[in-house]
Amino acid sequence: MKFTKTLSAAALLSLFATSALAYDADWKRGRVYYRSVCTSCHAVQPGGTINPSTKTKAEWATYLKADKHAKGKDTVKQYVSKAYRASIKSGNKAAEKFADTPDQELMDDIAAFLTKGAKDGDAPATCN
Predict the structure, then answer these.
(1) How far apart are CA 63 and CA 65, in angstroms?
(2) Under a CB-based contact definition with an 8 Å cutoff, are residues 49 and 107 in contact?
């Protein structure tokens, strides 16, 4: 009986520790970064801006997992990195605002925004 209580307590503690460490992505922060950094750069490119609603949730997930930007010439993570944000922060308030945000948190935030704003998401979004 004592072993069962100890095992149950350990399992419960493990569950709380795991949930405390899990990051709950902030789609609103992802939206700010996407619209302020990603869209501002793409707007001056020949292809123009890329709205979240141009792809489905599955297509965005595949794109982010592949981590290939500009047809594989570089990576998506490069444009979310602290180094990239530092390089553009003098001309971009969102990059400055999120300068110290961990790369993976910001990537998760952007993924949450893209999922929410996808063609089949909860709130299909444009970047107008």
Answers:
(1) 6
(2) no
Rounded Cα–Cα distance for residues 123 and 115 (Å): 9
Per-residue pLDDT averaged across 65-72, rounded?
90
| DSSP annotation string for 58-85 | HHHHHHHHHT-BTTTTB-TGGGTSHHHH
DSSP secondary structure letters along 93-112? HHHHHTTTS-HHHHHHHHHH
**What are 81's two structure tokens?**
């990195």
Q: What is the pLDDT of residues 91-120, one digit of tens each?
A: 999 999 999 999 999 999 999 999 999 999
Question: Which residues make Cβ contacts (< 8 Å) with residue 75, sequence separation at least 6?
Answer: 67, 68, 69
Position 23 scores a pLDDT of 84
CB atoms within 10 A of CB 2: 6
